[in-house]
Amino acid sequence: MDKVVILFKGGVETQEYFSIEMSKTFQKHGYEIYWFDLVLSGLSAKQLCDFYKADKSKKFMAFTFNFNGIAGEDGLYDESFEGGSFWNETKIPVYNMVVDHPLYYHKYLPLRPENYMQISIDKNHIRYMKRFFPGVQLAPDDGFLVLGGTELNEKRDILSDKFLPVDKRDIDVIFTGNYTPVNSFDRFIAHLDSDYQEFYRGLVRKLIENPEMIVEDAAEEELKNQGIQFTDDELKQIMPNLMFVDLSVRFYFRAEVIARLADSGIKVHTFGAGWDMLECRHPENIITAGNVSSQECLDMISRSKISVNVMPWFKQGAHDRVFNSMLNGAVCVTDTSGYLKDNFIDGENIIFYNLENIDAAADKIKRLLTNHDELEHIAENAYKICAENHKWEMRTNKVIEWMNLTV
């Protein structure tokens, strides 16, 4: 039977890049790729309907990120479809990899297809779904699958060796990712009374003081400390307001890490929007390139000795920055997560720092930059682990394994 996987383009640039990487492995396994353009949703939906009707004997699957294509898009959701959507009428299995905390997506879950399976990149997100949305179908293995990485020189068509040696890398320290000032997130709670606003600001302070906690646990603990009784359903209703808390804490620490490095005398090359707004004592040590594509980020990582990561509050997961760094020869310096500690060894194939002692990260980076042999050793070890276990090819193979279990 011919196999077709529907993938999505035209949404968030990084997610489209992930999809393109995954498409290569789908094709190796004999899947035909159908690209749905989210920018032209109405037209794309008509074309998809025609394509599906032309040969229903094919085995259709869909894979998406963060509810792209299953969030009520024009042409895919209409009362003319049986069940109210193209997905429900066709019964096509849809796998959705949620790459942020599920609290961002409560409003989309009622629109999910009947034949829906959710993938989570953090085990805490699985716990959240089981508690607050027990009726949502998870992919096999509870749908746990961390993000993957991309190796630029995989085919050795750029360099004869796998990556540039340390001595030939012209960027000492890089950070790839955007920056938004924390006060920009006030809009998420501006509609609330002052007491409620203070509650959420208190949660931000609590997490800054206790960076091992996760957002939902901090909220529950604080409510109990205030003597407030609540059901799980009542707790679920306030979770979307925790976007303010999650984003505030995430960007607070992102700013703290980069500012502390810069103020210690380390020149940090940032690739992402917003870094010109970061306030620190030595802004001259932050070399900003502005917003760039995923491809350009990888290009720059491949020229860097050290790639700094600040985890976006995935305490039992990982971020693709970690794997992208390792697959392209940069030593990853990152705060920890349960997943990273289970899969990597500090000082051997990764460098860990603690969010409670960011200044120590600066000391580690300065020492590493004076010892190229150690950098080379760590980079080689990290590359080997990631090349065998943490590419998008491996993630796609797991998705295909799950798809093969779908009746």
Please specify the SSE layout and strand pairing.
Blueprint (H helix, E strand, L loop, with lengths): L2 E7 L3 H16 L2 E7 L3 H14 L4 E7 L20 H5 L3 E5 L17 E5 L2 H10 L38 E6 L17 H16 L5 H11 L6 H7 L4 H21 L4 E4 L14 E3 L5 H8 L2 E6 L10 H8 L3 E5 L2 H6 L7 E3 L4 H12 L2 H18 L2 H14 L2
Parallel strand pairs: 1-2, 1-3, 3-4, 4-5, 6-7, 6-9, 7-8, 9-10, 10-11
Summarize the structure in words.
With 407 residues, the chain is of the alpha/beta class. It has three domains: 158 residues, Rossmann fold (3-Layer(aba) Sandwich); 160 residues, Glycogen Phosphorylase B (Rossmann fold, 3-Layer(aba) Sandwich), CATH 3.40.50; 55 residues. 41% of the residues lie in helices and 14% in strands. The strands form two sheets. It has a six-stranded parallel sheet, sandwiched between helices. β10, α11 and β11 form a beta-alpha-beta unit. α1 packs across α14. The two termini are 14 Å apart.
Low-confidence stretches: none
- Corresponding CATH architecture of the largest domain: 3-Layer(aba) Sandwich
Question: Whole-number average pLDDT?
Answer: 97
Strand content: 5-15%
Summarize the structure.
The chain is of the alpha/beta class and 407 residues long. The protein has helices at residues 13-28, 41-54, 86-90, 123-132, 194-209, 215-225, 232-238, 243-263, 294-301, 320-327, 338-343, 358-369, 372-389, 392-405; strands spanning 3-9, 31-37, 59-65, 94-98, 116-120, 171-176, 268-271, 286-288, 304-309, 331-335, 351-353.
